[in-house]
UniProtKB/TrEMBL annotation:
GO molecular function: acyltransferase activity
Localization terms from the record: Membrane
Entry's transmembrane regions: 7-29, 75-93, 99-116
Lineage, opening ranks: Bacteria, Pseudomonadati, Bdellovibrionota, Bdellovibrionia, Bdellovibrionales
Main location: membrane
Top-level taxon: Bacteria
The protein's name in its UniProt record: Acyltransferase
Length: 131
C-alpha cells in the first residue's frame, strides 16, 4: 500500500513540475492579468535577467520528467527542493491565495524525501556528518 502512495505522490509531483516547465518554456498560457503588484514586480525582475526563467522552467521540466519516469528521483528531489521553498515563500509573502498548493507541494517533497522508500535512505545520507 505504501509503495502505491509513494508512486501516486511521485507522479503527481512529477506532472506538476513537468507541465509547469513545459507551459513556461513555450509560453503556452499568458500570466494572469490580476496578479498582486508585488508579485508582478518580482516576476518582472526575474524576466529582466533574460536567462533565469528559461533556466528555471528547463530545470522544472527535466526534474518533473525524472520523477515521472522514476529515474534519478533523489537527485530530482534535491534539485527541486529550493524551487519548492521559493514557491512557498512567494505565496506566503506575495500571493497568499496560492499558499495551499505550495503547502501541498512541500508536503509531497517532504514525504518523498524523508519517508518514502527507497528515496529516504539516499536523501538522509546528505544529512549525516562526515566521520
Amino acid at each position: 500500500m505504501k509503495s502505491k502512495v509513494t508512486m501516486v505522490i511521485r507522479l503527481l509531483l512529477g506532472f506538476v513540475f513537468f507541465a509547469s516547465g513545459i507551459v513556461g518554456l513555450f509560453n503556452l498560457v499568458p500570466p494572469p492579468p490580476n496578479l498582486p503588484e508585488a508579485l508582478q514586480t518580482f516576476n518582472n525582475g526575474l524576466m529582466a535577467s533574460v536567462y533565469f526563467m528559461p533556466f528555471l522552467k528547463a530545470v522544472e521540466t527535466i526534474c518533473g520528467l525524472l520523477l515521472l519516469i522514476n529515474f534519478f528521483v533523489p537527485l530530482a528531489l534535491v534539485v527541486l527542493a529550493p524551487i519548492v521553498i521559493n514557491i512557498f515563500l512567494v505565496h506566503a509573502f506575495l500571493a497568499p491565495e496560492g499558499l495551499i498548493l505550495a503547502v501541498v507541494l512541500g508536503a509531497f517533497m517532504i514525504y518523498l524525501s524523508f519517508f518514502a522508500e527507497p528515496y529516504k535512505n539516499v536523501i538522509k545520507q546528505l544529512f549525516k556528518p562526515k566521520t
